[in-house]
Design brief:
The chain is mostly beta strands. Helices cover about 0% and strands about 60% of the residues. It has 2 domains: about 110 residues, Jelly Rolls, CATH 2.60.120.10; about 70 residues, Jelly Rolls, CATH 2.60.120. The radius of gyration is 16 Å and the shape is globular.
């Protein structure tokens, strides 16, 4: 097990792919040997971003996306064929980067987290945990994000305190026991294909 504390002051900010806003890049991975770390070399990315006005999402062919509101409420994503209801915070929706999506803000600006991965390169999950309890984490990379205040967790027999908006990156070669001791965390899990 390898753990790395990612501090909010070290996160990088970048423009959305369509230039419509700025996202905060919390953690990502790119293809081995890529000379440029860009959207074409991206394997996966965990990021947060404010959505302050209605508008279109970036077109991201070949990318699967998970999204969750962590601040504010009332977000709805509309595509020509379906609607994704994120009106309540900490609800996860899944959609593809090819979908034409426009945001509807029913109660003002929101803050969201996104976990995205190149289709076929990784399997991803995103969920919020706010009740103390235990679960198994599979082999792979896991991001424990303190979305709302400080939190405490236990991995195996080791305790960790994570300050507000910081993230503990956990890399596992085999399954491990994860316990939420206190607080609320957003847990992003990534399993690369073939691992």
């Amino acid at each position: 097990m390898k753990t790395t504390l990612l501090k909010s002051e070290d996160y990088t900010r970048s423009p959305w792919k369509n230039g419509g806003g700025i996202f905060t890049d919390i953690a990502d991975a790119h293809r081995a040997g890529s000379t440029t770390k860009d959207w074409d070399s991206l394997l996966w990315r965990f990021a947060s971003t404010p959505i302050v006005a209605p508008g279109p999402f970036s077109y991201m062919p070949g990318i699967d996306r998970l999204q969750m509101v962590i601040g504010g409420r009332g977000l709805v994503l509309k595509s020509p064929t379906q609607e994704f209801d994120e009106r309540e915070p900490f609800t996860t929706v899944r959609f593809t980067g090819e979908m034409e999506i426009v945001t509807v803000l029913e109660a003002g600006p929101v803050e969201v987290v996104n976990l995205m991965a190149r289709r076929g390169a990784a399997e991803i999950e995103l969920l919020a945990l706010n009740e103390p309890g235990e679960r198994q984490l599979s082999a792979g990379a896991h991001l424990v994000y303190a979305a709302r205040g400080d939190c405490r967790i236990r991995l195996g027999a080791e305790d960790f305190a994570i300050s507000h908006e910081n993230t503990l990156k956990v890399e596992l070669t085999e399954a491990a026991r994860f316990t939420l001791v206190s607080g609320l965390v957003v847990l992003g899990s990534i399993r690369l294909a073939g691992s």
